[in-house]
Design goal:
This protein is mainly α. It contains 8 helices and 4 strands, in the order H-H-H-E-E-E-E-H-H-H-H-H.
């Protein structure tokens, strides 16, 4: 296992529901995405792919069948329908993205963001995916909130997206959760997570699907 030692960064995680901190977090992610968009993926080591190709997420998960078969019977068919419906898109701008922007990966002092953490899943993906992911978490796992709206507004004021990207946000939220489920199943096969952890991710995916109907 690798490790690193870094200077301690002051700050605390923003609390869900704090509108001012949500807006500041959205603006910070926009600033990060502006910088990440200037990087050439060819100059970087291979990383997590956020493009909807679910069979390329984890080296231990080349097909979705075993994942689906291992889920509780009462959710298996619905999860299978969602996963088989996720497809890569060719009409959305791509760049390096953070991929996991949540309150737990942000540090703040007052209304100022002091750090963005956890670049483990940073890699090539749809540019709008970062906004979709951040909105999902600041919206209380997909449930619409004023803080989620503030987060999106803070982001778009700094880093405007196209109309097609904005229209794609619900689809990208679902794609990200599907990607996360596959990733966690791969971690389970590696002995890093439990079957219960994978089932919980499946439940989260199903919850988001029901919200989007």
């Amino acid at each position: 296992m690798s490790a690193s030692l870094s200077r301690r960064i002051p700050g605390e995680h923003p609390v869900r529901g704090d509108i001012g901190r949500a807006a500041a977090s959205g603006a910070a992610l926009a600033e990060l995405d502006d910088v990440l968009g200037r990087l050439d993926p060819a100059d970087l080591p291979p990383g997590q792919m956020w493009d909807g190709n679910l069979t390329a997420i984890h080296p231990l998960v080349p097909s979705l069948g075993p994942l689906i078969d291992g889920l509780p019977a009462d959710c298996r068919d619905e999860v299978a329908r969602i996963l088989t419906g996720v497809r890569p898109r060719t009409d959305l701008p791509r760049q390096i993205i953070h991929g996991d922007f949540a309150p737990s990966n942000v540090l703040m002092v007052g209304d100022r963001v002091t750090a963005i953490l956890d670049f483990e899943t940073c890699g090539p993906g749809y540019r709008a995916m970062d906004l979709a992911v951040g909105r999902y978490f600041f919206n209380d796992f997909g449930h619409p909130t004023a803080a989620g709206e503030a987060f999106q507004r803070g982001y778009l004021d700094r880093f405007p997206l196209t109309g097609a990207e904005l229209d794609s946000l619900p689809e990208l939220e679902l794609m990200r959760e599907a990607t996360s489920l596959v990733h966690w199943y791969g971690r389970h096969l590696s002995g890093l997570t439990t079957a219960e952890d994978v089932a919980a991710r499946a439940d989260r995916l199903l919850g988001l699907q029901r919200l989007s109907r």
